[in-house]
């Protein structure tokens, strides 16, 4: 992705946060110079994958296959004394898909906080064994109500939340307007706990065509 596209995507996410009255921690607004001035804290955040994240999954078509995220808090899986949970915010465009992927470690709730409708779809293909050894579920809950996972698109509207079972391949996109989404889960590891149905990448190569607005979390520790 071009840096200009990443900058634009983050600015749009910041505008959505403002529209919904959400305020992020101070480091969300850091410039690259702020990361240098706070090098130890920046490295601590980066190690835990906390901060901004913009990806086109290496496909070069961000508008139709991409995602903007901000990880607010996270721990290191299996490390004593670390937080065993994570919190993320996701900014999903209309017809902008996050492609089929599954997690072995992470059980997650995806909650629509505002904006449009989030469409979530599951497939029988490409299941991965949960780290707990439990069978992969074939049903799920939306705010406690049980639904079969397969054979339909689950439409999650503002205020609703869907629990994504471990090991189950899922994809999602916005339907009628940009969607402001929250994710609460066990520890998140975007380097090692994303198993895509198709052979695609989690992170984007960046083409530097303008100054950086916000560093991504995987850049912050190297500032």
The fraction of residues in strands falls at 25-35%
**First-last Cα distance:** 20 Å
Structural class: alpha+beta
What are the segments in which pLDDT stays under 50 over at least 5 consecutive residues? none
- Major sheet description: 6 strands, antiparallel
Number of strands: 13
Folded structure, characterized:
This is D-lyxose ketol-isomerase. Its EC number is 5.3.1.15. Keywords: Carbohydrate metabolism, Isomerase, Manganese, Metal-binding. Belongs to the D-lyxose ketol-isomerase family. With 223 residues, the chain is an alpha+beta fold. It is built from 4 helices and 13 strands. A hairpin with a 2-residue loop joins strand 7 (139-142) and strand 8 (145-148).
